[in-house]
Amino acid sequence: SVKGLLDYVTEVDRASEQLIAEALTRAVPGSEVLGEELSPQRARRAQSPTLPSQLLWVVDPLDGTTNYLHGYPQYAVSIAALVDGQLVAGVVLDVERNLVYHATAGGGAWCDGERLAVSGVTEPSLSLIGTGFPFRSPHLLPRYLRHFTAISAATAGIRRAGSAALDLVDVARGRFEGFWELDLAAWDVAAGTLIVREAGGIVTDLAGSPDVVCQGSKVAGNPAIHAWLLELLATC
Predict the structure, then answer these.
(1) Angle, CA 207 vertex, CA 204 and CA 208 arms, to 5°
(2) CA dihedral 182, 72, 13, 202 (to 10 degrees)
(3) Total-model pTM
(4) pLDDT averaged over the chain?
(5) Band of the pLDDT at 46, cuts 50, 70, 90?
(6) Which of 44, 120, 130, 148 could be disulfide-bonded to 179 (CB atoms 3.0-4.6 Å)?
(7) Is the Cβ–Cβ distance between 178 and 83 less than 8 Å?
């Protein structure tokens, strides 16, 4: 049954996150791990503006769980490291394609020895934009649909593939000119955020704040399209 498969995938999520958490804290004793499958109390820290000063790992063991469940080849493992609340490293594994995207603060964004760079397209009508539905918060759907309508009318197209981590990677490597989504969690975007920034892009919330570790809405893109998206979304 679908429910049985979903229960199984949830258990795989939890087991994977536990293995990752154990490996990370063993490698760096005293560090903390924040992840989707951890206890609700710890998961709520993703919504808190205050983060521990020591090393914090932000982990999504399976971003795109529904895709995985249905055999749709768009899901990833995402791990980010923060020190004093600042992103210092991020890794996104595209599982189906066996591609590892990684970045360090000031060290650029890379995949298989190739340095990543955001798209140079600056015209909205020529831009491809990634997105995700606010499935955690159905009350946001009317607002999201206003965004969708406005962006769809002004761009070359919108794509929704079901993994925010891989959407951000697509911004970093220039496949998407931009990306927006409402109500994301820290583990959805932490690693991808650093990868986009190190590829020359910008990631903020809808108000333009760069502090995107906490849960909320996100806008990403090359500098020109990011600025255009912020301006457009403010009118919707």
Answers:
(1) 40
(2) -40
(3) 0.91
(4) 90
(5) very low
(6) 130
(7) no
* Mean pLDDT value of segment 160-174: 98
- Decide the pairing of beta strands 114-115 and 99-104: unpaired
- pLDDT at position 155: 99
State the residue for tokens 């090359």. 222
Q: Which CATH class is domain 124-233?
A: alpha beta
What is the third-level CATH fold of 2-115? Answer: Fructose-1,6-Bisphosphatase; Chain A, domain 1 (3.30.540)
- DSSP letters of the chain? -HHHHHHHHHHHHHHHHHHHHHHHHHHSTT-EEEETTS-HHHHGGGG-S---SS-EEEEEEEETHHHHHHT-S--EEEEEEEETTEEEEEEEEETTTTEEEEEETTTEEEETTEEP-------GGG-EEEEE--TT-GGGHHHHHHHHHHHHHHSSEEE--S-HHHHHHHHHTTS-SEEEEEEE-HHHHHHHHHHHHHTT-EEE-TT--S--SSSEEEEEESHHHHHHHHHHHTT-
